[in-house]
Inverse folding.
């Protein structure tokens, strides 16, 4: 069977439930872009998965909706909400259309490690612009495309400290990891850094901040070879509408 986000949803939810330093790091750097106090703020979390970011936003006081095209991911998010209510709402939806989300209805759009999964970045940014109120903001993380290009690997540890080997940076498009334990066995879309930034500008977003945070100490314990490489690229942009 070919893996999809829906078929690996149980595995992904269990991985996050038992503690994944990488996912907690990606959540924390994204949430650091938003005010601590979010009471009254309307937020849409695109590609919410099992809700790691959505429920944290709700716990800060936001009125937040998480959407994801995987029904199984949404079931996990809703189960977590029943278990420990935060007020977060969830719906099955596609980030390329946002058919369940009204125009001009949110102050923030967040997207943690999900825009690298949408097949059509232009459609996703058009949809995000549509649902954002004028001056609303978009904050997202993606795996750093310079280091997480298709089939990037590591040099042999026997040769000293492992170094990242990246050879397919120009190969934009869908690719799937052959690692049976890797998140990207479900497949994802590789795009160059300039493709993301150019698309944001073309869709009327004003770049406010970008960052390449160094891996947290917790990530360094789990994956020492990542020391000195930023695992994620972070963008904060505002709608110029
Ligand atoms: C790496 S997970 C991230 C989930 C969550 N944001 C987190 O930080 O754990 C990527 C998510 O993107 C979702 N995704 C895939 N295609 C999508 C699309 N077209 N629109 C929105 N989300 C999508 C997947 O179903 C999956 O839940």
């Amino acid at each position: 069977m070919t893996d999809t986000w829906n078929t690996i949803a149980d595995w992904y939810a269990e991985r996050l439930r038992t503690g994944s330093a990488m996912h907690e790091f990606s959540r924390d750097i994204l949430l650091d872009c938003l005010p601590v106090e979010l009471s009254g703020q309307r937020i849409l979390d695109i590609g919410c998965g099992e809700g790691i970011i959505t429920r944290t936003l709700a716990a800060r006081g936001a009125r937040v909706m998480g959407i994801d095209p995987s029904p199984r991911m949404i079931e996990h998010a809703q189960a977590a909400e029943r278990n420990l209510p935060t007020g977060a709402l969830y719906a099955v939806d596609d980030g390329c259309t946002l058919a369940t989300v009204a125009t001009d209805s949110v102050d923030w759009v967040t997207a943690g490690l999900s825009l690298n999964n949408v097949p059509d970045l232009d459609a996703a940014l058009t949809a995000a612009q549509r649902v954002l109120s004028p001056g609303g903001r978009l904050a997202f993380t993606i795996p750093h495309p310079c280091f997480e290009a298709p089939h990037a690997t590591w040099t042999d540890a026997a040769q000293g400290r492992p170094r990242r080997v990246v050879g397919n940076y120009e190969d934009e498009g869908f690719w799937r990891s052959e690692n049976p334990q890797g998140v990207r066995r479900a497949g994802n879309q590789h795009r160059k850094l300039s493709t993301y930034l150019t698309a944001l500008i073309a869709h009327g977003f004003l770049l406010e901040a970008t960052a390449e945070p160094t891996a947290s100490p917790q990530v360094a314990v789990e994956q020492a070879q990542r020391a000195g490489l930023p695992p994620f690229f972070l963008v904060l942009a505002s709608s110029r509408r």
Observations:
- The mean pLDDT is 96.
